[in-house]
Design a protein that fits this description.
- The chain has helices at 6-16, 56-73, 90-96, 112-115, 133-147, 153-164, 211-225, 240-246; strands at residues 28-32, 35-39, 44-47, 77-82, 100-101, 105-111, 126-130, 169-176, 179-188, 194-202, 230-235, 249-259.
- It is of the alpha+beta class.
- Strands 1, 2, 3, 4, 5, 6, 7, 8, 9, 10, 11 and 12 form a twelve-stranded mixed beta sheet that branches.
- A hairpin with a 2-residue loop joins β1 (28-32) and β2.
- α5 packs across α6 (153-164).
- The N and C termini lie far apart (44 Å).
- 32% of the residues are buried.
- The mean pLDDT is 95.
Amino acid sequence: MNDESIDELRAAYDAQLRGVTPPGGGARVERDGPLTRVVGWHRGFVSGPRDLGVHGADLDRLIARQRDFYAARGEAVEWKTRAHDLPADLTDRLTAAGFVAEDSETVLVGRSADLAGEPVLPDAVTLRRVTARRDLERIAALESEVWDEDWSWIADDLTARIESAPENTVALVAEAGGEVVCAAWLVFKDGADFAGLWGGSTLEEWRGQGIYRAMVAHRARLASARGVPYLYVDASTDSAPTLSRLGLRAITTTTPYVWSP
């Protein structure tokens, strides 16, 4: 990935990945000025271009309007920010409006062809693509266990994505003895040069055996075969070092700011 500078990759990310495609299942996208917001998801979601082009009191009103919109629905809302967003005081104004920062993640980008490969798994582990509701619920259960919080909503999210655009979401499980030990999914966006790596969670006792790397290699191979040149991922502090060693490069960080009723 030496041909592209970090600035060029970041510019392509900003141009192609700032919007959001709802998973289906009744979720819809609305616009409010420069913002895109999702209604009918597991919680509200707001994103915008790199530069909102709104400042001062006008920005405060835009923020309050999103908060009040979801408050009227009795829903929490996540405003997804990136470290290079403008105006520079956006996060300060979100905080003043009652939004709370959650953990930051590193946005990493890598070339699909460079990361692609035959997945190498421990002898006891098998990898398969899943679409059945029961398997998607097993993914949600694993994510809930790994992250020690309620991820049950992910079963609905993946179900809706697969039903609305089955070619654009590839859900995978790694299993041993009938138990899901790792889960991950790959999300394509029509017309984009990037496919998203999501999930990528492994039970603690199965870590360090190459399962996570195998999941990345398999998804990269699928993206490369489809002609999608790049993979991107919002990486936790646990995942970022592994992904960096595989050759992905950091282009920014992302922090969700959440308001809850």
